[in-house]
Design brief:
CATH topology of the largest domain: Aspartate Aminotransferase, domain 2
CATH superfamily of the largest domain: Type I PLP-dependent aspartate aminotransferase-like (Major domain)
Number of strands: 12
CATH architecture of the largest domain: 3-Layer(aba) Sandwich
Order of helices and strands: HEHHEHEHEHEHEHEEHHHEEHEEH
Number of domains: 2
Shape: globular
Radius of gyration: 20 Å
Structural class: alpha/beta
Number of helices: 13
CATH class of the largest domain: Alpha Beta
């Protein structure tokens, strides 16, 4: 059996624990604490099971039209993928030559490094305060905003200036945009835009992580390139219908996002009272360092014994921190109580 050398040595992406059972508080993978719009359930009830014998709409026509309407653009500027991760994978194929590199902030979404390894190209990480320091040597730059795992937010003006100076393609990964004060979508839809793609997901604010639907908006030439290389039928029929129902209920999504933001601010304040160092977050999670003398990994293990699952990244620049996805107020209070018992 022959496997390519770079795949043999590939570490692969490490996802968060996926525990199941009663009494578990799962705040480790930035899922939404609240259910999706009731219109999603209605879409499932109305779905004709007999239609599953047919292939789904290959171009996600209705969903692209709805996304285009939401962002005041045309469907030709919209691509829909099997989760945002598919869009990232396709972009690594479409916009990076074999002798080029992929860049991102460091730290950021750990999948970026893995995508470069899968593609067989180099990855270069740039510090958040000086993103252009290494980025000029890359052809594709992936900028999560708000960033993960820190939750920090960069203004659209800074990102616009970066794109103007950057010679390659910039993808602004806005998975957490609905929890932030503003966003960069207007940069993607601007008439003179040549190199900015803004990416969104239904997994976070729309509460549809289990459906695997993401999309991006950008120049028609770049969107057409992604359309060329996607799987023939990359988004299944049920996912298209449910995502369409979700995006048509902006009020439900916004109300859920508002509750998460309020709980995020409350939880951040409570951690600060306990002498944790909390990085201000514009996402649906909080990245925080325990008080002096307490190891993040020890708190992580302690919480796990109490069926509270959070995220701990063991890389040198993140290992002192814990990332807490924001659950319900009750879940976060139970998490605080468990932290108090460790202290």
């Amino acid at each position: 059996m022959r496997i390519t050398k770079h795949i043999k040595s590939l570490k692969g992406y490490i996802h968060g624990d996926q525990p199941s059972g009663r009494g578990i508080i799962k705040i480790n993978t930035n899922e939404n604490a609240y259910p999706p719009s009731p219109k999603c359930a209605e879409a499932l009830k109305k779905f004709d099971v007999n239609s599953l014998r047919l292939y789904p709409n290959a171009e996600c026509t209705k969903l692209r039209m709805a996304i285009a309407k939401l962002h005041k653009t045309t469907p030709e500027h919209v691509f829909v993928g099997n989760g945002s991760d598919e869009i990232l994978s396709l972009s690594a194929k479409a916009f990076v030559e074999d002798n080029e590199s992929i860049g991102s902030l460091d730290p950021s979404y750990s999948l970026y490094n893995t995508l470069a390894d899968i593609r067989g190209v180099n990855w270069k990480g740039s510090p958040e305060d000086k993103p252009l320091s290494l980025a000029k040597d890359t052809s594709l730059f992936l900028w999560t905003n708000p960033n993960a795992p820190t939750g920090s937010f960069t203004s659209p003006e800074v990102i616009r200036a970066f794109a103007a100076a950057y010679p390659g393609i910039l993808i602004v990964d806005e998975a957490y945009a609905d929890f932030a004060p503003t966003n960069c979508m207007h940069l993607a839809t601007a008439n003179k835009n040549k190199n900015i793609i803004v990416m969104r997901t239904f997994s976070k604010s729309y509460s549809l992580a289990g459906m695997r639907v993401g999309y991006c908006v950008g120049p028609t030439e770049l969107i057409a390139a992604l359309m060329k290389i996607k799987d023939s039928y990359n988004v299944d029929a049920i996912a298209q219908e449910v995502a369409l129902a979700a995006i048509k209920d902006q009020r439900w999504m916004e109300n859920n996002a508002k509750k998460i933001i309020e709980t995020r601010e409350y939880f951040s304040e409570e951690l600060s009272k306990r002498k944790w160092e909390v990085i201000p977050s514009s996402a649906n999670f909080v990245f925080a360092k325990p008080p002096k003398g307490i190891k993040a990994e020890d708190v992580f293990e302690h919480l796990k014994t109490r069926n509270i699952f959070v995220r701990h990244f063991k890389t040198p620049n993140t290992r002192r921190y814990i990332r807490f996805s924001i659950g319900t107020r009750s879940e976060m209070n139970k998490t605080l109580s468990a932290i108090d018992k460790y202290n």
